[in-house]
């Protein structure tokens, strides 16, 4: 089973923001683009994916965050950028995903939402 996170950030992630998140997740991990570049994966030494990160999606409509998450989100208001991050069930993957998401939020402002703990 995957562990899903959404970084709801106040600004569009730049290349520098994405790179900072990748470095924070793990400098020794491999990186590859899949799905025509719409998804970036962090991989282990055997090239197996640990974390998948989708391209950011701009959310502009009031109430859309609540509809997409299925729960009220009072801490982030549109416009916001939705960055979906999915960790595999493999050891350490969840922590990598959380470090990536936290780095984006630290750099851009916003909150992290997860399937297990709601909005932070």
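Sequence proposed for the structure above (120 residues):
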């Amino acid at each position: 089973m995957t562990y899903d996170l959404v970084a709801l950030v106040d600004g569009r992630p730049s290349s520098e923001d994405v790179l900072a998140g990748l470095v924070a997740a793990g400098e020794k991990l491999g990186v590859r683009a899949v799905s025509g570049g719409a998804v970036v994966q962090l991989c282990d030494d055997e090239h197996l994916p640990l974390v998948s990160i989708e391209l950011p999606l701009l959310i502009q409509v009031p109430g859309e965050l609540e509809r997409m998450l299925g729960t009220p989100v009072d801490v982030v208001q549109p416009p916001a950028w939705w960055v979906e991050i999915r960790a595999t069930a493999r050891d350490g993957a969840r922590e990598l995903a959380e470090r990536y998401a936290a780095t984006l939020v630290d750099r851009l402002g916003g909150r992290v939402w997860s399937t297990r703990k709601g909005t932070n």
